[in-house]
Amino acid sequence: MASHVFCRDLCLERGEPHEGTGDAPERALLLAWPRAKWRTPRWESVDMSAALAASIHRAALAQVHVALVDRVGDSQGLPQLMAQPEAVSADFASEQALIDAIDAYVDGTPFPGTPDPRTVIVVCTDSRRDACCARFGFSTYKALVAIADPSRFHIVQATHIGGCRFAASVIVLPNRQRYGRLTADDAPAFLEALSRGAIYLPAYKGRADLPEPAQVAELAALRWAADRQKPANALRLNTAKVPATARDGDQLQFSADLGEDRLDILLRARMFHIQGNCGVVAEGGGSHELRWCLEQLSQAS
Questions:
Q1: CATH number, position 44
Q2: Are residues 161 and 28 in the same domain?
Q3: Residue 12 domain-assigned?
Q4: pTM for this prediction
Q5: Burial status of residue 77 (CB atoms within 10 A of its CB: 0-12, 13-18, 19 or more)
Q6: b/e per residue 233-260 (b: at least 16 CB within 10 A)
Q7: 253 and 192 inside one domain
Q8: Number of separate domains in the chain
Q9: Which candidate in 25, 56, 113, 294 could, as Cys together with 90 as Cys, close a disulfide (CB 3.0–4.6 Å)?
């Protein structure tokens, strides 16, 4: 029997960067559901009624991400539903009350609940969706839980959040920070950065509200500043006009101001063979997509 080929390994071999893939949902609901019962799609999970499934599906169509979440050894301790970025959690007396809360949230009405000011770390461990999320995601999740202060961090494992080929795939809420290729070895430095309100730059994908090339350029400037121990809170990216279409090899120039420093940032469009999950790899599928990559960063004279 042939050994499993992991999409994460192929992505690394091809040199595809995770930078520039920082898109994250503006609104999210975390619904407690045992990991063993997760299925794909999530609204077909075991023991989920047709009415609740329809509510979750409706939320997805309205661009509200509903993640099924669990916590090893403490499933009963999870609130039934948490809303982000509102940072409110609640339990409900009946399934209908839960459905009503989800439907109302989708329509723009937050549900009453208990405020939870902790930083939420969502780690994809969805083995039903992808083997990389199970293999790399679960080890990262366990490493984070083992050392995190539960009074400061609310860490859950979750169904598919995107970016399987960049496993472990992680979202930090309510900050909307996305991270990729976060390993168990990264856990101490990652939590230390979050503890002081900083971004963990090695695995950061980019700012969610920027287009891909601007994410790449800004992240390059942030890393330049960190390497020189310069404060990055004054960083200003001078946004370039991103072309509607691009070809392999096209270039895009950005500049960034960082206090008295001015940086010139050159990006180049590169074509990659994308196989977004292990299922695509097994079927021999995939597509060719352009990604904007850092070509050169220099300090302006």
A1: 3.40.30.10
A2: yes
A3: no
A4: 0.95
A5: exposed
A6: eebebeebeeeeeeeeeeebebbbebee
A7: no
A8: 2
A9: 113
Residue labelled with tokens 């975390």: 30
pLDDT tens-digit readout, 206-252: 999 999 999 999 999 999 999 999 988 889 998 778 888 899 999 99
Which amino acid belongs to residue 21? T
Q: Please state at what angle helix 95-106 crosses helix 50-61, rounded to 10 degrees.
A: 10
Q: Residues 134-185: pLDDT tens digits? A: 999 999 999 999 999 999 999 999 999 999 999 999 999 999 999 999 999 9
- Concatenating the DSSP letter of every residue in 144-212 gives HHHHS-TTTEEEEEES--S-GGGPSPEEEETTTEEE-S--GGGHHHHHHHHHTT---GGGB---TTS-H
Q: Is residue 1 part of a domain?
A: no
The answer to whether 112 and 104 have CB atoms below 8 angstroms apart is no
Cβ count near 145 (within 10 Å): 20
CA distance 186 to 150: 18
- d(CA 259, CA 231) in angstroms, rounded, equals 9
